[in-house]
Amino acid sequence: MENTDKLNQSCLFQYIHGYRFTQLIYVVAELKIADFLKDGPKDSRYLAKKTNTHEPSLYRVLRALTSIKVFKESKQGFDLTDLSQFLISDSPNSLRVLAVMRGEEVNWKPWGELLYAVKTGKNPFQNVFGMDLFEYYKMHPASGQAFNEGMNITTQHDIKTILDQYDFSYAKTLVEIGGGLGQLLFAILAKYPDKNGILYDLPHVVKDAYSLRAQYQIEERCEIVGGEFFSTVPNGGDVYLLKRIIHDWDDERASKILRNCHQAMKDGKIIVFETMVQDDYDNPEGKVNDTHMMMVTPGGKERTKEEFFKLFQSAGFLLTQVTPIGKGLYAGLYAIEGMYQ
Length: 341
Fold this sequence. Notes:
The protein is α/β, with parallel strands linked by helices. The chain is built from 17 helices and nine strands.
């Protein structure tokens, strides 16, 4: 076998066995193993006692992770590496909660039904759990909390990227639809003290946004409104923002959200911050994440520029500009802008 063939075979072999590493990392992230190693190496007996786990099984998991340099093993026990420092709960840029979110059953089980999706065109999450993703999180608050914490990693990175790369100086009143606790909108208003804002999300979500708004000291410039974006959205904005919202929904429901924004506006602009499917090999995230949306959301997908053009048109907007603003770990974020027609 030629060297190139061997390398290609080895690469495919690693992809085939990728599921193992996802679960191995999930287990040590859930158990917070890296937190116990911050002050030096510990043996598996100590770690098993601290985590109330079966020591021989835990040892085998930790040993397996040394093969991909997540941990290293010595006579003193297991120790952190350059990789596992990002599994420490309170370390800068920690990925621990993201590892937990991706490894727990709410994400893991639907992926086992990918062939079902390909054969039937139906949603695997619904098939596995008997409800859609958002209903599941309502009924399983712990999983919902893990999801929110995992998404917060993406949110924090998105905020920095958006503030660094996008100029909001032209805006007067920004309305963020599905804005959660308001992290993005509040950060924009803090940077632009002459702007006003309206935060809009489900009532049980925005009730927790008031304390964060107070921390930013923007109470007089930012209104918090609870509601459901398939029904209506607040009036009064000249710029409407939706960050990682549209990809959760099929075209019909995504268009409904955008039409509600259009009806609430007298004029102005809509900005959708999303991952986008591109036709080059240097930006694979959109293509891969699109399959994840197929697995877990009720009809959601990542879209091409042409698909966004049609979606905007269906809601009364003209797509005017697509700007790549993502970089680093979460490359692939785009500002997709549309003007009111």
